[in-house]
């Protein structure tokens, strides 16, 4: 089978809600990441064959195929097309899969994958809220859905609570995990671990999410999101703004353009699980990816799993027996933020650069997704 290589990977800083990126049009933010990724790769933008971006809440400024508008907003060639993907939180990880699959199929040689979300401008679940307000129904009230799953609440927040309950994960354990995420992110910032991957946007040159002033005592004082629950804002991913982009090349393109690959796409998988529990699919997706790759859990040097909520990662660690030190060593979305459509590409960008920085070989990325799904991607650093 033909190979697919990541030849550049960049991301903007992740901005806090109403922070340094909240005023930026999503097309301009994504366009900046796309343009920078192509320049970093060392290829002519006119040679790119497609642009695939992830974006979850495709409403207003993020509607009408933002992959296309972002590319054009950056002043890049009109003959290059674009398409926008929604696999919920895994949208830009799926964009990377589609780009790699296009290259591995032999039908394309250079594809850009990435994602964007400006949650300060387009709040989470905006399309569903607007649709319900306009009388267009909700995603979970069709006769077929209710016949299968009933009328119970379906949300990521309930899913997180159900996971904490099923795996017996205490609030205290989740808060300790969250504090570790912030400390790792702050240590990574001080060590310059993100310097190769972040491209400053305006005056913002670092992630705004990590909190040096947080503590277990402060976390313990927060109210739970639901009465009688265990989940608080402290153990949840931050509402954020950001964009990321990667250029994927075939072996022929690497040779023809004299490119220097950062990593090889080794294994890709996607799977589904219980859509009401919703956030457990990274467990079977990781197992499936490791089996397909012929690797053990210990054979992976670094894992990046999205910290949508602390119990998602804690249940995954417990089920798979993964060394916590290898998972999100630079912090995760609890500290760094989760700009929905951009996070998949952000995680891969961080994974590739840190593997190379630390001399690791194999990295695995996975993340839970609305509807009870998960992608898993294994890369080999070069």
Automatic annotation (TrEMBL):
PANTHER family: ACETYL-COA C-ACYLTRANSFERASE, BLR7806 PROTEIN. Keywords: Acyltransferase, Transferase. Its EC number is 2.3.1.9. Belongs to the thiolase-like superfamily. Thiolase family. Residues 260-380 form the Thiolase C-terminal domain. This is Acetyl-CoA C-acetyltransferase. CDD domains: thiolase. The active site is at residues 89, 338, 368. Residues 5-251 form the Thiolase N-terminal domain. The keyword Transferase applies. The keyword tRNA processing does not apply. It holds the Pfam family Thiolase_C. One of its GO terms (molecular function) is acetyl-CoA C-acetyltransferase activity.
